[in-house]
Amino acid sequence: MWTQKYKPRSLGEIFGNRKLIEIIKGYKWKKPLLIYGASGVGKTVISETIARELNYELIEINERNIENAKNISQTSGIFGKRKLILVDNVDQIENIKLVVQLLKETKNPTLLITSDLSSKRLKTIKTLCEKIQIRRPHTLTIVNILLDICKKEKIEVEKRLLEEIAKNSNGDIRSAINDLETIAKGKKRIKEEDLEILEKRDRETDIYNALNLILMGKDFQKALESTWNLSEEPRNILLWIDENLPRVFRGKDEINLAYHFLSRADIFIGRVMRRQYWGFLRYANPLMTGGVNLAKGNSRVNYTRYQFPMYIIKLSRTKKERDIERSIGEKLSPFLHVSEKIVTKEFIPLFRILLKNEKIDEKELVERFGLNPDELEYLKG
User: Fold this and answer.
1) Which long-range contacts link 25-30 to residues 24+ away (Cβ below 8 Å)?
2) CATH number of the structural domain 2-133
3) Pairing mode, if any, of strands 83-87 and 110-114?
4) For the segment 326-345, what is each residue's pLDDT rounded down to a tens digit?
5) Distance CA 90, CA 30 (A)
6) Distances from the Cα of 345 to the Cα of 28, 67, 311, 322, 350, angstroms
7) Of these four, 270, 290, 292, 342, which has the most CB atoms within 10 Å of its CB?
8) Where does the chain show beta strands of DSSP type E?
9) What is the DSSP string of 225-288?
10) Residues 6+ apart with CB under 8 A from 334
């Protein structure tokens, strides 16, 4: 995806918000920094660029590791580098008190991002942070970004056409780049008629509307375009389709063919995650949207209520267990000289057997590795 391919790698590469960039460059990090602004204006990109520019190790705090956030924020990163603690969408963190505790006790530069500064949940957080607003970029700024991309992709285009794309994005840089990529795909020149697709795109589309177009609709093109404006990650979209496909489709042959396309999409998404090459999404998205839609053909469907993916629900239920495993891994890894993943996979079962057969003392484990009662109980099984 061009949003990944042309992501700024330094603060100097960021278009617009020059005053903001200068403030960030000179920031002394005596207080945590709260960046706020509308969706798609570049808040997350700027935070990633800050870490790269200052040579900090970027550590993201989210629902999965928020309970260990205080410990994470009080240690150095790999090879002694300072950490930049990032809390994205801070207003959506369920246990906001843990974020407040993090801000009061962090020993590393800490950055928070929100699209809703007016949220009542941020009342205490706003008093603990320095606040900086990222404003919607001017249309001309977005045009310059699109011009730069077209130049690098060797695509001929009139500036006025890029202005139409920029205006249609309503200040959302990410959407503008996605629009440009969609229009320019397979072309060396963009013509005025190519912009007709902009009139068809609905920016309010949600996952339920997308599922309707993919699983129940009869228009291949609409199914293909259904996920273009979703904020969901491709992996989550695939899980939604996987969960609801057998509830909607009736015929065994149709279900079999649909899962054939879905499995191929899963392969490409896996390659994206392993290689960090987002170009594979150009194959994954059509397979799991248009491919699944084609599998249905003109067959009748079951009209049913869509279900939330069970895989995501199970991950949520096992969150505490996975957090404990991750915390144990962080504590044991430096002593055992292996990765946290190896600690979880090989050493936790080993210690569990040793404790069960009384071959190792609980007190020794606690004192040596600094385990808390929950972690010790988990090791005991």
Assistant:
1) 25/53, 27/130, 29/109, 29/110
2) 3.40.50.300
3) parallel
4) 888 888 888 888 888 888 88
5) 20
6) 41, 22, 21, 12, 9
7) 292
8) 33-36, 57-61, 83-87, 110-114, 130-133
9) HTTTT--S-HHHHHHHHHHHHHHHB--HHHHHHHHHHHHHHHHHHHHHHHH--GGGHHHHHHII
10) none
For residue 165, give the nearest of 203, 195, 207, 202 by alpha carbon.
195
Whether the per-residue pLDDT at 75 is higher than 60: the answer is: yes
Q: How far apart are CA 37 and CA 243, in angstroms?
A: 34
Q: Is the separation of the CB atoms in 301 and 225 below 8 Å?
A: no
- Closest listed residue to residue 260, CA positions, set 288, 224, 301: 288
Q: Which CATH number fits domain 139-200: 2.30.130.60, 1.10.10.10, 1.10.8.60, 3.40.50.12780?
A: 1.10.8.60
Note the pLDDT tens digit of each residue in 2-49.
887 888 877 777 776 677 778 877 888 889 999 888 766 777 788 888
The helix (run of H) or strand (run of E) holding residue 187 is none
SS3 (DSSP) at 112:
strand
Burial group, residue 252, by CB count within 10 angstroms (0-12, 13-18, 19+): exposed
Tell me how far CA of residue 86 lies from CA of 45, 69, 339, in angstroms: 12, 10, 22
DSSP state, residue 93:
-
> CA–CA separation, 60 vs 65, rounded Å?
9
Q: Sign of dihedral through CA atoms 140, 142, 145, 151?
A: negative
